[in-house]
Each structure stands twice: as structure tokens, then as C-alpha cells.
Design a protein that fits this description.
flat, single chain, 5 strands, 3-stranded antiparallel beta sheet, 315 residues, 6% strand, two-stranded antiparallel ribbon, 13 helices, mainly alpha
């Protein structure tokens, strides 16, 4: 699979998961109904088969075994599978599924096209001063408007996980949303808008506990998959203006060691950028996925290599 095909596959997967994230409550795939204090899973109330009649006819052992088989064991299996994925492949969920990271990449691309930079503190890349001054106000209005729209969809999506979705949407269309849902929508939209415009990858790096947990398990495995730089061919980078680092949504030093890429999401944007730059090079890209190498740079706790002492014989 070429990297262009890989990025198209990522786009399909993460876009599908983003839609699933927004539509899951409305489709009754998964939500928690505050009005009834019940979990709804695939249009069924999550009762583990413990109806009132069953509870009356069962003892504590039956209830314990039912909870063990229907809830505790599936939860343990899910956690174990998740830890294995994090340990072997790192933040694969972030780069391929996470709805927030999808917004990170989309707004990054929008800002790059409108103002020539993906963060407010980076220098714009426009080639001329005249082009750099073009419609700055309009560009930022578009960026903020798009970010606010996505933020509102996020806020509405999260609220639909807690309140019955269809009545919520109906009340929204008729401008009859209650006081507390309205406060939630305004507050959440404001917070998400600030995040999408200013923070984005900073939240992924420092604010997302689930993302940091994935990175910790990944760093524990010195043989985990990572984007590796071919240092033997580093001279080929002399004619490049760091396209790989500019392509990284997390703004990481992608040609550095693993410990410097603690929050890598395995999105492979840097690999795609390098492949494009080196497309006429018969040796190909300098960045590629690879297994790690056991060294002080590839694990969570630095490992010092101790050379064996040489024994000198007196002549």
C-alpha cells in the first residue's frame, strides 16, 4: 500500500468513526439516558438480563456470576486488548479513530490554506508580503466560524449521549431547549472553540489522559512500531525545508529519537511528506515505519549500555 493510499484509507476510517461518534446516540448504538438512568446499547437497556422477575428468583451467587460474565469479564478483555494495541503500536487510536484528532487535522489544513500556518505562533509560509497580508480578517473569521460550528456539533453530540437525542434535536429546531441543556451547549461550544482554534494538538499532548496512557505503554516497549529515520542517508535532507515536521499534526521532531516523539499518533503524515519530497530519489523515503531498537532512546526509562571491561595482560 502506497502512502497516498494509506492517507486515503485513514481519511475514510476516521471520517466514518467521526460520524459514528455523532450519530451513535441517535441510532441508539450507545448512550446513557439521564432521564431513566439507564445505559442503552444497540437499542436495548443494559440490564445484563437481570429483570425484576429474575432478581426475585435468584440468589447472590446467580447475580454475581451474571455480573461477572456480562460485565466484568468483557471489560477486562477489552482493557487487555487495548493495552496490547497501545504497547505494540502506540497511539493508533489517536491517529486513526479519535474524533478530536480528526478535528486537529482538519483545522490544521484549513489554517494552512487560509493563513499559511497551523498555529498562531508559527511564521506564515507565504512567498510574498502582499500574499501574506491578503484578507487576514476574513481568513480568521472563516477559521473561527468553522471551528465554532464543529465545536457546536461536538457539544450537541456529547449532550445527546446524556439526553434522549430525538426530543433534544426537536427542541433545538423549535428553540425550546431547556435551561440546563442550553447552558451546557453554550459552555461546551465555547471551550471546544477555544481548543480547536488555539490548542488542538497541545490538548492531545498534555491534556488527554487517554492519549498519554497510550504513549506510556508504547514507551515501555523498546520494540514497538515507530517512524524511523534513516540516519545513514541524512544528507538527502539538505535540500528539504523540513516538510516532514511541517506535515506532523503534533508538531514533533519526526527525525529525532523515539523519546522525543512521545506523543506520536502513527498517522504517517511525515512519511507521506518525505515520500513526496524524495519521489525522484531511487532510494526512496528516509522515514518509514519500523520496529524499535533497544537503546536508551527507545524506552520509557533510559537504558545505559555498559561496555565490558577489557582485561590487560601484563607482559
Amino acid at each position: 500500500m502506497t502512502e497516498n493510499k494509506l492517507q486515503r484509507s485513514r481519511l475514510v476510517v476516521r471520517s466514518s468513526f467521526f460520524l459514528l461518534f455523532l450519530l451513535a446516540p441517535a441510532l441508539n448504538i450507545f448512550r446513557f439516558d439521564l432521564t431513566t438512568t439507564n445505559f442503552i446499547v444497540f437499542n436495548q437497556v443494559l440490564s445484563f438480563g437481570m429483570t425484576a422477575e429474575w432478581v426475585k428468583a435468584s440468589d447472590h451467587w446467580d447475580m454475581g456470576l451474571r455480573m461477572l460474565g456480562y460485565f466484568i469479564l468483557p471489560l477486562i478483555i477489552t482493557v487487555v486488548i487495548g493495552i496490547y494495541i497501545f504497547y505494540k503500536w502506540g497511539r493508533l487510536y489517536c491517529g486513526w479513530l479519535c474524533p478530536h484528532f480528526s478535528v486537529v487535522e482538519y483545522v490544521n489544513d484549513l489554517m494552512d490554506r487560509r493563513v499559511g500556518r497551523v498555529t498562531i505562533w508559527e511564521k506564515a509560509k507565504f512567498s510574498s508580503e502582499k500574499e501574506a497580508e491578503r484578507s487576514k480578517v476574513l481568513d480568521w473569521i472563516i477559521i473561527v466560524t468553522v471551528s465554532m460550528t464543529i465545536a457546536f456539533l461536538w457539544a450537541l453530540g456529547l449532550l445527546s449521549y446524556l439526553l434522549p437525542p430525538i426530543p433534544l434535536y426537536t427542541d433545538l429546531i423549535n428553540f425550546e431547549v431547556g435551561l440546563y441543556p442550553t447552558i451546557f451547549l453554550i459552555a461546551a461550544t465555547t471551550v471546544f472553540t477555544i481548543d480547536f482554534v488555539l490548542a488542538r494538538h497541545l490538548f492531545c499532548k498534555y491534556g488527554c489522559a487517554f492519549g498519554v496512557m497510550q504513549s506510556l505503554f508504547w514507551m515501555m516497549n523498546s520494540k514497538a512500531m515507530l517512524v524511523k529515520f534513516d540516519r545513514d542517508r541524512a544528507k538527502a535532507c539538505q535540500s528539504c525545508d523540513k516538510d516532514c515536521e511541517a506535515a506532523c499534526p503534533m508538531r514533533l521532531p519526526v527525525r529525532s529519537f523515539k523519546r522525543a516523539k512521545f506523543t506520536c499518533t502513527q498517522c504517517a503524515q511525515c512519511i507521506s511528506a518525505c515520500q513526496e519530497v524524495q519521489k525522484d530519489n531511487p532510494d526512496g523515503t528516509l522515514l518509514d515505519w519500523s520496529e524499535g531498537e533497544k537503546s536508551r532512546h527507545s524506552s520509557l526509562i533510559p537504558v545505559k549500555t555498559i561496555e565490558p571491561k577489557r582485561v590487560h595482560n601484563d607482559s
